Amino acid sequence: MTDLRNDEPELLTPHEVATLFGVDPKTVTRWARAGRLTAIRTLGGHRRYVGSEVRALIAPRTTPRVTARVSLGTE
Amino acid sequence: MTDLRNDEPELLTPHEVATLFGVDPKTVTRWARAGRLTAIRTLGGHRRYVGSEVRALIAPRTTPRVTARVSLGTE
DNA sequence: CCCTAATCGGGTAATTAGGGAG
DNA sequence: GGTGTCCTAATTACCCGATTAG
């Protein structure tokens, strides 16, 4: 990681993406077919997905479990 | 693959969570809508719930006294 | 070269989301 | 106020055999 010029994106296998989303690898393939995911094809026809793209789509919807009430709010 | 870093949360389907709680999947959906459960959305709109979160809420561990009434109703 | 696991395809059942009424 | 059931449309999961990845 000491390489500042790393143009190579982190590529994930369908199985990896499926695990991240909690779905079946086939479903990930369906998303790629629908154009919802950027897919890179290997010479054999298998798909590889960009890690940054996938992680951004997972939507960090972490519940705002009331950490600290921001004051000065009209509550 | 000595993968010691297993950050991937175990994601459960609505049916799984409903079975664990003994309620209907619809009710689980309502909980997610109310923000009482952390939900990850698939690209198709389906929800996946974090296993650790769910298991923590079920709390098979006899909590010290006070069955903990998880209030947090401080809205 | 052979091997195991994963991913291609397509097709069909099961599940889920959403709203509405009891 | 919260929950279970009914409906339709959309999405997802599992089945097969063949090919690719490593």
TrEMBL record, chains A, B:
Q: Which UniProt keywords apply?
A: DNA-binding
The cross-references to SUPFAM superfamilies, in alphabetical order and at most eight, read: Putative DNA-binding domain
Name all Helix-turn-helix domain ranges.
11-59
- Please, which domain of life does this record's source organism belong to? Bacteria
Q: Does the keyword DNA-binding apply?
A: yes
Listed CDD domains: HTH_MerR-trunc (cd04762)
The record, for InterPro entries, names:
BldC-like, DNA-bd_dom_put_sf, HTH_17, SinI_DNA-bd
Entry keyword annotation includes Lyase: no
Annotated GO molecular function terms are: DNA binding
Q: What is this protein called?
A: DNA-binding protein
Q: Which organism is it from?
A: Cellulomonas persica
